[in-house]
Amino acid sequence: MALVLALLLCFSTQSSVLVSGVISPPDAALTPRANARHLPDIIIIGVRKAGTRALIQMLRLHTSIAAAQNEVHFFDWDSHYERGLDWYVDQMPEAQPGRLTVEKTPAYFTSRDVPQRIRLAKPDARLLLIVREPTERLLSDYTQVYHNRLEKRKRPQPLETLLLRNGELNLDYKPLNRSLYHTHMQRWLQAFPISSFHLVDGDALVREPLAEMQKVEAFLKLQPQISQNNFYFNQTRGFFCLRDGRQQQRCLHSSKGRKHPQVSPHILSKLQHFFHEPNRRFFELVGRTFDWK
Ligand code: A3P
């Protein structure tokens, strides 16, 4: 009899409980492997076109990570923000206890109110920022907009028209402004201490994904798990592709790694010269340098 009672008790905490003939849902708090949604532990805040998709896909290789599928745009779109934190939590993946959840919305990095909004909602968030050599990032940004316009059957504009105004660089051109990392980082550092951030080197992530991901694992205090076996080089794509624990292979979408426009050497050197000082200020802010020649 005691054995039967023990079995019944055990069963009642693991699955549905039978009360007066009614099956009530299991108590999530008592169910050791319950899946639940919670505010993200980790947020990839940007920068757009620096490798944010590669970063979240590579993070998912770790069994302790559950990632949101889409860009949530909770903190930067007022129409989403007004829906409240419960709505935000609903956009998160279900995660077993102990697993960390992550979302990425690259537009967060350059949106004015986002740092304070995140601090209010999740002061202990771990923030991942992936950066890339600013001129290359700008060209990638331009290329993305170029293709978006083609898809919408709009005529793409030549880069020079957008980038230059009276022969000088147009600082209002958004892809240029987004590459001024220090101006945006300054705002983030008013909301969070530098220890909340880990900076991923987007150029290094392309060349040596494992080394960069090992640094991410260390920052997130994850058991080292991502290995060389998770990556293989795809000659056709010219990038590393991913192999998960079930040996499923996957390259990033073909919109990643598109050919950039030909830019005159004059404009290239103008850009590189221009970014020199903003880069120096960014390095000073974050206390490290990047190999951006
Ligand atoms: P390009 O398309 O300019 O080459 P995001 O995901 O933030 O939009 O960034 C896109 C960039 O991710 C791509 O820029 C590409 O260089 C970079 N990237 C990094 N690792 C990659 C990978 N393994 N496969 C494809 N693209 C990768």
Could you describe the 3D structure shown?
The protein has helices spanning 2-14, 52-59, 78-81, 85-90, 114-121, 134-151, 159-163, 174-178, 181-191, 202-207, 209-219, 265-286, and strands at 17-19, 22-24, 42-46, 65-67, 100-104, 126-131, 164-165, 168-169, 197-201, 231-234, 239-243, 249-250. By secondary structure, the protein is an alpha/beta fold. It has a single domain, classed as 3-Layer(aba) Sandwich (Rossmann fold). Helix 5 runs parallel beside helix 9 and helix 9 runs parallel beside helix 12 (265-286). It is globular and about 60 Å long. The structure holds adenosine-3'-5'-diphosphate. Adenosine-3'-5'-diphosphate (A3P) binds at residues 48-54, 106, 140, 205-206, 239-240, 252, 256-258. The site of adenosine-3'-5'-diphosphate has 17 residues, from helix 2, helix 10 and strand 11. It is an enzyme of class 2 (transferase).
Care to give the gist of this entry?
With 293 residues, this protein is α/β, with parallel strands linked by helices.
Which key features would you list for this structure?
single chain; 293 residues; alpha/beta; Rossmann fold; five-stranded parallel β-sheet; three-stranded antiparallel β-sheet; 12 helices; disordered N terminus; binds adenosine-3'-5'-diphosphate
Please specify the SSE layout and strand pairing:
Layout: H1 2-14, E1 17-19, E2 22-24, E3 42-46, H2 52-59, E4 65-67, H3 78-81, H4 85-90, E5 100-104, H5 114-121, E6 126-131, H6 134-151, H7 159-163, E7 164-165, E8 168-169, H8 174-178, H9 181-191, E9 197-201, H10 202-207, H11 209-219, E10 231-234, E11 239-243, E12 249-250, H12 265-286
Parallel strand pairs: 3-5, 3-6, 4-5, 6-9
Antiparallel strand pairs: 1-2, 7-8, 10-11, 11-12
The structure holds adenosine-3'-5'-diphosphate (A3P).
